[in-house]
């Protein structure tokens, strides 16, 4: 089937999905969890074939790690499905309700977006997770995962379609796009009559490609160049933990801390401690002159070049710089931030509030790690990703972000 | 200055605008109202030159009407500025606030989008209105109105820039793009680093052009093919008023009623009354067989062709059809609606609720005219247009639609 035909089928299915009661949508997700449990061996076999092919093709270790499914990973996948089934139904939620002078009763009501296309890495777990979120929010989806996960995705999609079919929902609400043909992707990105939203998630090359070719509204989940500013009013104990764990707890995630800015008034006290901690944690510091000076020749501290500011390392590397003032910190962030996540460490409330007002990233934190910019941590129940687009959804995007509010108005014969 | 340079200036200005207190933003709008009052003769002269040139170029009457500024129009423009200045400040509004298990206090806070580019018809009033809304919401804007309004727009923009400058706000927060060069527009649509949102408003050709060339997120304000369904449970008095005034009160607006669907059970009672009323109102009906039959040869009722379903007439013409059932009405709307506005007339609550659930246009009304899909009528205080995109904003788009919610999180040293 051509991508044009697939998108048309998804559009048709989306109308039926939007009409399904929440109980049916939840039943599909619970049924899918059971089917995944029942077919674990088959899934692991398909995945190990993907792994073998990827290894033979020389795919690198981090990518292989993301590709691999394990019994524990499948348990989490099932658990995720059950959690999403248990979340409140966003469809039909009334977010506001008021009466206007004409006597009309106005409601804003959440409604599905329609058809969502997601383009992502070779991570089979995302296939099930993205389907579950899109479908729970009443949408059909086209899921195009990285080609290395082809066998895994194809099998998972066919199981999901079985669950849809078995519960009276349209199987065409879920399509795994298995071709890795860029021409086909280009075509898909023009199908604005049948696709309402495109979510690209991944590296700069993919985002650029989608950006260049999409005629469909796009919300990008792009990179995070997350800063922590250690203010002169900081509790340095808190600052040390926030910076150190912000880098080490999951260095390859978009919410990892990539750059620390230290106010000059606390540099003398803070730099040696941070340098020592980084040494213990195996973190390389790319620092300015002050850091290099404070390092006294320690091998893990190197001179930063201009290219280090604004770089997303996704590795045990931390850019580090001393700033003369709060304003300089805000200016550095304004220039190099990717709009993802920024944090300040300070006990001074006025400074904290100023930071929250003037730094307008998708998530701004006071005295907490950048790693908390995450749908689960911020109470969304789930997330399909973290948007760095300043439109529709900015920051973690949960079920609500997969809906749109429309107006429902009840009158008694009003005309104008 | 090239469009690339203009957009860069707008981007720089947008950062300063977002930092301005609401009192300064309001002062600019009030100052602008005063300046417009003081320079009325100059503005009317510039506009009459635009009118003369447009007349000489053979521009049609409806377009000339939209182009023309009058003392009364300028009074409304000033009144609009004062009203917008008086609206609550959306910037910094906390829309939600809660604490998560880790102890983090999470807020969702409205923040400006950044730089908004609007592309619209030759309507100089929109230039001031769009600037006021964008700026009130903390944004910079690039406003590209139709070329026929060039002199009017250029003068109005220069006055707005004076107001910005006089109040300590950056003049570059407002740019009127006066060139009508399509190549320049194409270039503008690629400047995604410096423009956050494009709002095209106007005819199908313009929307298509923007759609084809934009690399920037776009919210379209497209056409309205608005339906009214007269259910078998309708109060026919209400139905008659809703359909008749929905067509006649402002036939050239996007929320005018373009098509009426009548349940067969009330056709015998309703059709003759609607046909009679249309005759009095000077409305032409393009009807199906039932309507033509009921018309008994009346000259203002003609046979509809397939092309009439889904047509936006923007004129005193109404498509009309009898349907066999509620489901047929919903199916007709599903097929031909532009997602703008749909209404049902019925006293049967269950049917009304079913309609509200199954018809997912940007605004769905019960027992009220489609003409109420309007930011002022629905209590938004103002509107920059009515979005038919199912992303970011769907329906009337007011100040809130010109902002985005971000996450502000306060902790006490939390790490993970």
Key phrases:
homodimer, 416 residues, alpha/beta, Aldehyde Dehydrogenase, Chain A, domain 1, Aldehyde Dehydrogenase, Chain A, domain 2, 2 domains, 7-stranded parallel β-sheet, 4-stranded parallel β-sheet, 16 strands, globular
Describe the protein's architecture and organization.
2 copies of one chain form a homodimer. Chain A is of the alpha/beta class. The first copy, chain A, folds into 2 domains: 3-219 and 392-410, Aldehyde Dehydrogenase, Chain A, domain 1 (3-Layer(aba) Sandwich), CATH 3.40.605; 226-378, Aldehyde Dehydrogenase, Chain A, domain 2 (3-Layer(aba) Sandwich), CATH 3.40.309.10. Chain A is 43% helix and 22% strand. Chain A is built from 14 helices and 16 strands. Chain A has helices spanning 3-19, 22-38, 40-56, 61-67, 71-86, 124-136, 150-166, 182-188, 204-213, 236-248, 264-281, 289-295, 326-336, 349-358, and strands at residues 94-99, 105-112, 115-119, 140-144, 174-176, 197-200, 226-230, 257-263, 284-287, 301-303, 317-323, 341-345, 363-368, 385-391, 393-397, 403-414. In chain A, strands 10-9-11-8-7-12-13 form a 7-stranded parallel β-sheet, with helices on both faces. A 4-stranded parallel β-sheet of chain A has the order 5-4-3-6, sandwiched between helices. Chain A has a 3-stranded antiparallel β-sheet with strand order 1-2-16, with no helix packed on it. In chain A, helix 2 packs across helix 7, helix 10 crosses helix 11 (264-281) and helix 11 (264-281) packs across helix 12. The longest helix of chain A is centred in the middle third of the chain and has 18 residues, at 264-281. The first copy, chain A, is globular. Chain A starts with a helix and ends with a strand. Strand 16 (403-414) of chain A pairs parallel with strand 13 of chain B, so a sheet runs across the interface.
């Amino acid at each position: 089937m051509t991508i044009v035909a697939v998108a048309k089928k998804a559009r048709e299915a989306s109308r039926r999905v939007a009409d399904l009661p929440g109980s049916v949508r939840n039943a599909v997700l619970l049924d899918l969890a059971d089917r995944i449990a029942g077919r674990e061996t088959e899934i692991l076999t398909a995945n190990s074939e993907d792994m073998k092919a990827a290894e033979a093709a020389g795919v690198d270790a981090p990518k292989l790690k993301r590709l691999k499914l394990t019994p524990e990973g499948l348990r989490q996948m099932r658990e995720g499905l059950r959690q999403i089934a248990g979340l409140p139904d966003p469809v039909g939620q009334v977010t506001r309700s008021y009466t206007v002078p004409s006597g009309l009763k106005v409601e804003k009501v959440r409604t599905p977006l329609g058809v969502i296309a997601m383009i992502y890495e070779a991570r089979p777990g995302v296939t099930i997770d993205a389907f579950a979120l899109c479908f729970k929010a009443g949408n059909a989806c086209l899921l195009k995962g990285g080609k290395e996960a082809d066998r895994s995705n194809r099998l998972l999609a066919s199981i999901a379609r079985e669950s849809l079919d078995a519960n009276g929902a349209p199987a065409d609400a879920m399509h795994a796009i298995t071709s890795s043909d860029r021409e086909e992707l280009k075509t898909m990105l023009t199908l604005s009559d049948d696709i309402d939203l495109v979510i690209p998630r991944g590296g700069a090359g993919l985002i650029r490609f989608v950006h260049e070719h999409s005629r469909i509204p796009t919300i990008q989940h792009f990179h995070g160049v997350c800063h922590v500013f250690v203010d002169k009013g900081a509790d340095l104990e808190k600052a040390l933990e926030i910076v150190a764990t912000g880098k080490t707890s999951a260095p390859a995630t978009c919410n990892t801390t990539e750059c620390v800015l230290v106010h000059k008034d606390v540099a003398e006290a803070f730099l040696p401690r941070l340098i020592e901690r980084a040494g213990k944690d195996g973190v390389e510091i790319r620092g300015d002159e002050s850091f290099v000076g404070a390092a006294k020749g320690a091998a893990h501290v190197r001179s930063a070049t201009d290219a280090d500011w604004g770089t997303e390392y996704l590795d045990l590397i931390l850019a580090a710089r001393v700033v003369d003032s709060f304003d300089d910190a805000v200016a550095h962030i304004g220039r190099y931030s990717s709009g993802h996540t920024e944090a300040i460490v300070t006990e001074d409330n006025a400074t904290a509030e100023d930071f929250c007002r003037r730094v307008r990233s998708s998530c701004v934190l006071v005295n907490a790690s950048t790693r908390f910019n995450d749908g689960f941590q911020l109470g969304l129940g789930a997330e399909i990703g973290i948007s760095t687009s300043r439109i529709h959804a900015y920051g973690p995007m949960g079920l609500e972000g997969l809906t749109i509010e429309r107006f429902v108005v009840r009158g008694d014969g009003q005309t104008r």
